């Protein structure tokens, strides 16, 4: 179940648009008690039915783009870390390894 803020992100529409869809009956919801208050909760299927032009492929494309950017950022950070390690001991050759394997220095 999704909260209104989740619906805004998923459907890529404004809060006002969501309330208009609720008031017109286009977007179905369920009232759920949360911390002694009633909160509107939505099913993902109902959101896609109410806002059909917001396709899942658009959401998936955005997610893929965000993941690509994160991978690029992590690759850059790894390269910078490797440079920093090499700058600390330019004669030694260090290799970035996993946490389970200790870093090895050749020849020592």
UniProtKB/TrEMBL annotation:
GO molecular function list: DNA binding
Species the sequence originates in: Klebsiella electrica
Protein name as it appears in the record: DNA-binding protein
Key words of the record: DNA-binding
């Amino acid at each position: 179940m999704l909260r209104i803020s989740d619906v805004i992100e998923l459907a890529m529409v404004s809060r006002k648009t969501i309330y208009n869809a609720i008031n017109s009956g286009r977007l179905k919801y369920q009232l759920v008690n949360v911390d002694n208050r009633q909160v509107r909760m939505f099913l993902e299927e109902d959101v896609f039915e109410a806002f059909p032009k917001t396709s899942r492929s658009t959401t998936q494309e955005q997610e893929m783009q965000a993941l690509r950017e994160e991978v690029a950022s992590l690759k850059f950070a790894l390269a910078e870390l490797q440079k920093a390690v090499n700058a600390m001991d330019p004669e030694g050759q260090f290799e970035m390894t996993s946490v389970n394997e200790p870093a090895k220095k050749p020849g020592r």
